[in-house]
Write a structure and sequence with these properties.
The protein is of the alpha/beta class. The protein has helices spanning 11-34, 51-58, 74-79, 84-91, 125-139, 157-168, 197-202, 216-231, 263-271, 274-279, 284-307, and strands spanning 66-70, 115-119, 145-150, 173-179, 182-183, 186-187, 207-211, 237-242. Strands 2-1-3-4-8-7 form a six-stranded parallel sheet, with helices on both faces. A two-stranded antiparallel sheet has the order 5-6. Strand 5 and strand 6 (186-187) form a beta hairpin. Helix 1 (11-34) crosses helix 2 (51-58), helix 1 (11-34) crosses helix 11 (284-307) and helix 4 (84-91) packs across helix 11.
């Protein structure tokens, strides 16, 4: 059954949004704590501060809808319902991980929840999403795919090739630009001659919308409207969500001593933290119950990851070529 699209959310809606936001925040904060121990066997790109985008959009998707994302994909995986035990085991490089310990943080996949996976190479997943959208259109079951990427990916030629093909064939794909204004350490001001990304996209005949204030309720509303249009056969939709990365590009720490940004620059984004905002919509007892539940889930996932074995040597040769 499809979720009800509504501009005014109920207490159950706020509870669901908070639970998803808080789960992502707590999982990633725990990852940051664990990382120095070397238990985690891959680089990590944290989504702390950006959770509202994945949560606001995925809350509008059905289980049989598909998502695909980038190496900064923890929030997307968890917001879409990905298995937390397998997630943690993958970070630990263990056999019971979602990619059998071979993919690590940058290659999270859970096809039981239609999480197509994520890519460590900028923009390479965008045409993959388009190909899957073509499949969904041929099947004509009303499914859609949401493709998430950063502002840096919009500088690659394949991004524009994909926009053209998707528009030409009216594919059921929602393009989501998580625009945090940075390509690693390079700001948009040093990379773009003009800032209006939506005008470029609109040139391909694609309907666009933007959320500039990192407002999860606005993201939720605009994503819901776009997804309804996708299901009606209107063709691809594009949503640009302005956001800000709280931690370093890769790793668990802050990086304000690196010289490319300042702590003052981040301050308004922290003040507008959507996890804290939605928490205030809930009764204190309800919130405490959710927090306790999430703490238990994370502890369970850690034990699962610790107890899972490392892959055997012969697994190096498995899944290299198609059988």
């Amino acid at each position: 059954m499809e979720k009800t699209r509504q501009s005014t959310l109920s207490s159950d809606d706020y509870r669901r949004l908070y639970e998803s936001l808080q789960r992502i925040r707590c999982v990633e904060e725990r990852i940051a704590e664990i990382y120095p121990s070397d238990k985690i066997k891959s680089p990590i790109h944290l989504s702390i501060g950006q959770e509202a985008i994945s949560v606001g959009i995925c809350d509008n998707l059905n289980r049989d809808d598909v998502v695909v994302g980038t190496y900064r994909g923890h929030a997307l995986y968890l917001a879409k319902g990905g298995n937390l035990n397998q997630f943690m085991a993958e970070l630990f490089g263990k056999t019971d991980g979602c990619a059998r310990g071979k993919g690590g943080s940058m290659h999270m996949i859970d096809m039981s929840h239609n999480i197509l996976g994520s890519s460590a190479v900028v923009s390479t997943h965008i045409p993959v999403a388009m190909g899957y959208a073509w499949r969904l259109k041929q099947q004509a079951k009303g499914q859609v795919i949401a493709c998430f990427f950063g502002d840096g990916a919009t500088e690659e030629g394949v991004f524009y090739e994909t926009l053209n093909f998707a528009s030409l064939h009216k594919l059921p794909i929602l393009f989501v630009c998580e625009n945090n204004g940075l390509a690693i350490h390079a700001s948009i001001e040093k990379r773009w001659s003009q800032r209006n990304l939506l005008s470029k996209v609109a040139g391909f005949g694609i309907e666009t919308a933007a959320v500039t204030g990192m407002d999860i309720l606005e993201i939720h509303h605009k994503a819901g409207a776009a997804i309804e249009k996708l299901r009606s056969g209107s063709g691809p939709q594009f949503l640009e969500c302005h956001t800000y990365r709280w931690r370093q590009h890769v790793g668990p720490n802050e990086d304000f001593d690196a010289g490319y940004r300042t702590r003052d620059e981040m301050a308004p984004w922290v003040a507008n933290d959507q996890v804290a905002r939605i928490a205030k919509k809930l009764d204190e007892g309800v919130r405490a119950q959710i927090d306790s539940q999430i703490t238990g889930e994370i502890e369970c996932a850690e034990r699962f990851a610790e107890d899972s074995p490392f892959p055997k040597t012969q697994e190096l040769w498995e899944y290299v070529y198609a059988d």
